[in-house]
Design a protein that fits this description.
The complex is a heterodimer of chains A (178) and B (168). With 178 residues, chain A is mainly alpha-helical. Chain A has seven helices and three strands, in the order H-H-H-H-E-H-H-E-E-H. Chain B is built from eight helices and three strands. In chain B, helix 1 packs antiparallel against helix 2, helix 1 runs parallel beside helix 3 and helix 2 packs antiparallel against helix 3. Classes of the chains: A mainly alpha (178), B mainly alpha (168).
């Protein structure tokens, strides 16, 4: 294999792994809806990672390429795949949870336009919170105790604290309303 | 090694420029500004790499393309994360509020009082108008054509996965 072919492989391998990730995720969810979106993502990312590792292992690297450079190329391919997989996870998640996308969908369904009250009649705070309460309880992040909600699992709480830290670093404030 | 070094190095440089600029003055349209910033750093970096600025000789397509792909995937991952950081996610706000309440917990009514339409919906409508995805004339909101391709892709993918069309 020439250096040019190795370079092309370094481009194609993470893209092939990402295509495997997306295809496996969709097929897994269609074949087994009870799997849920999150576990279908795990299946997809795992399948993509397996394809990535297999292609990197099978690649006939040029003999003149030093081991350090092979490791660097493999690391670049793996990092590219991980980022593409992360973006895909968020693309799917946005479709499920993003308020702006839902608002766009409501406006798209009303070509004559909607007043603010018309928008809120179709999608408002009560539905937004209701969906999230259901999701957070179903995933164990909140625990329902009669009328009150108490802390559950810590994964989302840690994410929330990380996001606040990132807000302070990038925007100098803890909330968009500060 | 060059691909990894240039892809990561350019991304780190873009991040530093982003943080410095945002501290001086945050742009009105954050995502558009970030896309332009990353595109500019990538273009400049590829020119330097092509010219062999690191002393490693002129770089050909076999190094430029994978480096560009690595940088672009890092940039997209950052921008996706940034959109989550830029606005207050209701789920994360809810989880933080419940954690702060501790053993006492929080009722649905308490959270609904704090997270009203003015907090959860109106700012997002304003975002759509600011980003020219929607217009607001005489108090009536309508979609412009700008965001339609992305909306169609999202809805198509949800249909593909067999999920309900209405999210949120």
């Amino acid at each position: 294999m020439s250096a040019v072919e190795a370079g092309c492989a370094a481009l194609v391998i993470p893209v092939a792994a990402f295509a495997t990730d997306a295809a496996t995720q969709v097929l897994a969810l269609r074949a087994a809806p009870r799997l849920g979106v999150y576990r279908s993502h795990l299946a997809g990312f795992g399948a993509g990672a397996a394809v990535l590792l297999a292609l990197l292992a099978l690649l006939p690297w040029p003999e003149q390429l030093a081991a350090r450079d092979r490791a660097g190329a493999a690391a670049a391919a793996a990092l590219t795949y991980a980022c593409l997989g992360y973006c895909y996870f968020h693309f799917v998640n946005l479709g499920a949870t993003a308020r702006r996308i839902r608002l766009m969908a409501e406006l798209a369904a009303a070509p004559e336009g909607l007043t603010r009250e018309g928008v809120l009649a179709r999608y408002g705070a009560r539905e937004i919170l209701g969906r999230r309460f259901d999701r957070l309880v179903a995933t164990g992040q909140l625990v329902r105790d009669g009328e009150r909600y108490r802390p559950g699992g810590r994964a989302l709480l840690l994410s929330a604290r990380l996001v606040v830290a990132l807000k302070i670093i990038t925007q100098g404030k803890r909330s968009e309303f500060d | 090694m060059r691909v990894l070094a240039w892809g990561l190095g350019l991304f780190c440089l873009a991040l530093l420029v982003h943080l410095a600029l945002w501290r001086i003055r945050a742009p009105r349209r954050h995502i558009r500004a970030l896309l332009r910033l990353f595109a500019g750093v990538l273009a400049a970096g590829l020119l330097l790499l092509r010219a062999g600025a690191d002393g490693g000789g002129d770089a050909g397509l076999c190094e430029l393309a994978p480096a560009a792909l690595l940088f672009t995937s890092l940039a997209l991952a950052y921008i996706v994360t940034y959109t989550a950081v830029q606005v207050d996610s209701p789920s994360l706000v809810m989880v933080l509020a419940v954690a702060r309440a501790g053993a006492r917990g929080v009722t649905r009514a308490e959270l609904e009082a704090a997270l009203s339409d003015d907090v959860l919906v109106t700012p997002r409508l304003d975002d759509l108008v600011r980003d020219e995805v929607a217009s607001c004339r005489d108090g009536v909101y309508r979609l412009t054509g700008r965001g339609l391709p992305y909306l169609r892709l999202v809805l198509f993918w949800r249909r593909l996965m067999g999920l309900p069309q209405k999210g949120g």
